[in-house]
Amino acid sequence: MKNYQNVVVFNHPLIKHKVAILRDEKTSTKEFRELIEEITSLMVYESLKDGVPTVTRTVKTPLETCEQTVIADNAIAIVPILRAGLGMVNGVHTLFPAARVGHIGMYRDEETLEPKEYYCKLPDGIEDKFVLLLDPMLATGGSACDAIALLKKRGCKNIRFMAIIGAPEGLEKVAKTHPDVKIYVSTLDRQLNENGYILPGLGDAGDRLFGTK
Predict the structure, then answer these.
(1) Among all residues, which ones are annotated catalytic?
(2) Helix (H) or strand (E) holding 44
(3) Residues 57-97: pLDDT tens digits?
(4) Looking at residue 187, what DSSP letter applies?
(5) SS3 label, residue 64
(6) CATH architecture of 19-49+73-210
(7) Residue ranges per domain, the chain?
(8) Neighbour-count burial for 15-49, b at 16+ CB within 10 Å, e otherwise
(9) Residues 14, 20, 23, 28: is their CA dihedral positive or negative?
């Protein structure tokens, strides 16, 4: 896969360690859910080093007053792609507890592998917010591309997409379709199989998060 200016693949040893446990088929639902949140927090910390809206605020210490940089109020919105994206929300809220949450519901047609939208509910004023779009698995890239297009249609101009596991096919599709959107992936896997699942992957993230299989 060629290098894209809008793609960041993390190479952090702590993230690698947690992804290794996440992949293991013996990892329990509880531990899987906790790992998704922990990896998300690490990714958010690294990926939001620039671009987040900030303001200057006067703070009074026990000794004097000083000017400090803080995140602007109501600047961030979290938008998980249902259902697996829900597992990443708490990982963002750990760092930004006041962030508003919207939801985009999509499912994959098992024959065409194309995404189908069935739900969309976004916070008021999202067009002015710094939007974090979340989905643990970036496989074919169809859902991510459609969700980004939907956010743009609602007026969003500052969007960052975050996935924990990515396939080269999906990563390339999103990077080419939306070159203005920064894409963050903790791990880039080998390829998709004939059914559109990531290899080596970790199975169905939604099923493992919610214990539905």
Answers:
(1) 108, 112, 204, 207
(2) helix 29-47
(3) 999 999 999 999 998 888 999 999 998 999 999 999 999 99
(4) E
(5) coil
(6) 3-Layer(aba) Sandwich (3.40)
(7) 19-49+73-210
(8) beebbeebbeeebeeeebbbbbbbbbbbbbeebbe
(9) negative
